[in-house]
């Protein structure tokens, strides 16, 4: 069973930076995608970025393209996925979740939210104006 633990959220002024971390363990397969989602009050959860373990390919939603960078480091039994967030805007305020989905040849952009296999507990990011 995959377990995900996020950290790195906090309060930052507009224009500032934060780096989120997601430590994953217990993967049953070697091919998976790790995504960062976010959910602001009153809004639907949206996929912000994701990365494929197979080839390192990445995806960004339009609103964060050029400001956020996703990356991952693989250790023997864990994978840590980072989301470097620069030039933060008040609109980036949300709870950020990392999630994992087994891909079996697909791309991390393809699965729907419901198809993700494991979720972290979430970390709050607040950007003040």
> Order of helices and strands, N to C?
EEEEEEEEEEE
Radius of gyration: 14 Å
C-alpha termini separation: 40 Å
Question: What is the count of β-strands?
Answer: 11
Percent of residues in helices comes to under 10%
**Mind describing the biggest β-sheet?**
7 strands, mixed
Secondary structure category: mainly beta
DSSP helix count?
0
Low-confidence stretches: none
User: Mean pLDDT, as a whole number?
Assistant: 95
Shape: globular
Give the DSSP E fraction (strand runs of 2 or more residues): over 45%
List key phrases describing it.
single chain, 129 residues, mainly beta, seven-stranded mixed β-sheet, four-stranded antiparallel β-sheet, 11 strands, 0% helix
Describe this structure in words.
The protein has 129 residues and is mainly β. Helix content is 0%, strand content 52%. The protein contains no helices and eleven strands. Strands 2, 4, 5, 6, 9, 10 and 11 form a seven-stranded mixed sheet that branches. It has a four-stranded antiparallel sheet with strand order 1-3-8-7, with no helix packed on it. The termini are far apart.
Task: Summarize this entry quickly.
The chain is mainly beta and 129 residues long. The protein has no helices and 11 strands. The strands form 2 sheets. Strands 2, 4, 5, 6, 9, 10 and 11 form a 7-stranded mixed β-sheet that branches. It has a 4-stranded antiparallel β-sheet with strand order 1-3-8-7, with no helix packed on it.
